[in-house]
Amino acid sequence: MHLPTLLLAALLTPFIAADCECGYALTLDAHPPQPDERHVFTELTESNFARLHAGGDGDIRRNTDWAPQAFNVSAERGRGAYGEMFSARNIDMLAGDGGLRLTVGSELVRGMVPTAEVATRRLDMMWGTFRASMRLTGVEGTCAAFFWYFNDTQEIDMEFLSKDFNHANGSYPVNLVLQSLEAAAANYDASHTGSFVRAYLPFDPTAGFHEYRIDYFAGRVRFYADGVVLAQMDGPAVPVTAGHLIMRHWSNGNKLWSGGPPERDAAVVVKYVKAYFNSSSPKRQGDWERRCRNPKELSAVCDIPNVTAKNLAAQDWFFSENANMTNNQTVHGLNGVSGRRVEAVSGVMWALLLVSGCALVLL
Ligand SMILES: *[C@@H]1O[C@H](CO)[C@@H](O)[C@H](O)[C@H]1NC(C)=O
Ligand SMILES: *[C@@H]1O[C@H](CO)[C@@H](O)[C@H](O)[C@H]1NC(C)=O
Ligand SMILES: *[C@@H]1O[C@H](CO)[C@@H](O)[C@H](O)[C@H]1NC(C)=O
Ligand SMILES: *[C@@H]1O[C@H](CO)[C@@H](O)[C@H](O)[C@H]1NC(C)=O
Ligand SMILES: *[C@@H]1O[C@H](CO)[C@@H](O)[C@H](O)[C@H]1NC(C)=O
Ligand SMILES: *[C@@H]1O[C@H](CO)[C@@H](O)[C@H](O)[C@H]1NC(C)=O
Ligand SMILES: *[C@@H]1O[C@H](CO)[C@@H](O)[C@H](O)[C@H]1NC(C)=O
To answer: Locate the GH16 domain: which residues (predicted)?
Structure first.
């Protein structure tokens, strides 16, 4: 084969190598003598917020995977000094290679702190690996939460309290929590239950983006930062239902938890969220059965790349940004925004390939 053909083959390979019609595989390190564990998930939701544009497709209200939330919480109900006012007004897209910005305002509005939340539209996430790349705020007095939720006693949380970050001694805690019936009995203070771990991050989470991750399996939950396990929990507090993902940035002045309100506006930026999961929906299970003809076929199951400190490049991998790797998935083209369908994107890729192919042949 002469060089141009080889180059063309190399260019084409990523697009024809995999179809992923049987799912996305996660491999976990095991300790010998057990072999590594491999789990296959049939569904995905990938949102590359950094690729969206302020004002245009970055308008969160147009997103087909995520919905901005609007609700008010009274001081009493939130057990805070102030109420919380969740509104789409506190959510916007950073220009350039930014991400989704969730802002907690410093100015009270009718006794409420302006706060921000987005939630996945899909509610059928039953087991999965959920990853969010975030840069946290260095402004004291907020709680940033990345969590999986069904109800107040079926919930998996990663919560970051900006007042607890200590730049002087490099101490950056994250609270890992399963909200359970036991936590409910303790007045939703999970820190008095067995399913609460305060872990310390090996980096400054306000200085840059890092990937935070929750793996939810039957009877077991693992929490990670940049691919390193922070904690594992099992037992009766592990949820047993399907649920959805929420990104929330809030404050209510409770000195024992969020503190605040912040002295100036505080922003958390979300670069992406990637979720690979199984569905509790019989319709989606049926779709998978029709779609997955032979799981043993080479390209039928695709490996989810591991994000680690040594392999940060995996952060930039999105199945949904490649042709034919998300057929029959509900991701609506680039970044889950309606109006930009995946067919159009693959059309552009094909045009590019044809152009580069022609150029190579001409060489
Ligand atoms: C994508 O799938 C369609 C339908 O099966 C097929 O016609 C097309 O050739 C595939 N494209 C690539 C790049 O594999
Ligand atoms: C997800 O569903 C597929 C298809 O039913 C199944 O083969 C796989 O084991 C499930 N994965 C998990 C982690 O339960
Ligand atoms: C929250 O309260 C503000 C101020 O009273 C009000 O304008 C807004 O409509 C409320 N939001 C919702 C979702 O009810
Ligand atoms: C949450 O859902 C579980 C499972 O359906 C149920 O047992 C539990 O009582 C619910 N908790 C609340 C607070 O409603
Ligand atoms: C850093 O200081 C805080 C008090 O602000 C303390 O709680 C924490 O234990 C210290 N961490 C380290 C690693 O010294
Ligand atoms: C991810 O890491 C696991 C455990 O170290 C390994 O077995 C697996 O092959 C890796 N997956 C990929 C896609 O590199
Ligand atoms: C998946 O394929 C089935 C047909 O097998 C179809 O009914 C369904 O609408 C498709 N779903 C998506 C999200 O493309």
So the answer is: 27-281
Domain ranges of the chain: 3-32+296-355, 43-277
pLDDT digits (tens, 9 = 90+) for 328-358: 998 765 544 433 333 333 333 333 333 332 3
Residues of the chain with pLDDT under 50: 1-18, 335-363
| 171 in contact with ligand 5, CB cutoff 6 A | yes
What does the block give as tokens for 26? 């996660």
**Binding site membership of 311 for ligand 6 (Cβ less than 6 Å):** no
Rounded distance from Cα 284 to ligand 7 centre (Å): 8
Query: Which pLDDT tens digit goes with each residue over 140-150?
Result: 999 999 999 99
- Sign of the CA dihedral running 251, 252, 254, 257: negative
Distance between CA atoms of residues 9 and 356, nearest Å:
12
CA atoms of 300 and 23, how far apart (whole Å) = 7
Residue whose CA lies nearest to ligand 4 atom number 14: 151
CATH architecture, domain 43-277: Sandwich (2.60)
Per-residue DSSP letters for 167-207? TTTTB-EEEEEEE-HHHHHTTT-GGGSSSEEEEE-SS-TTT
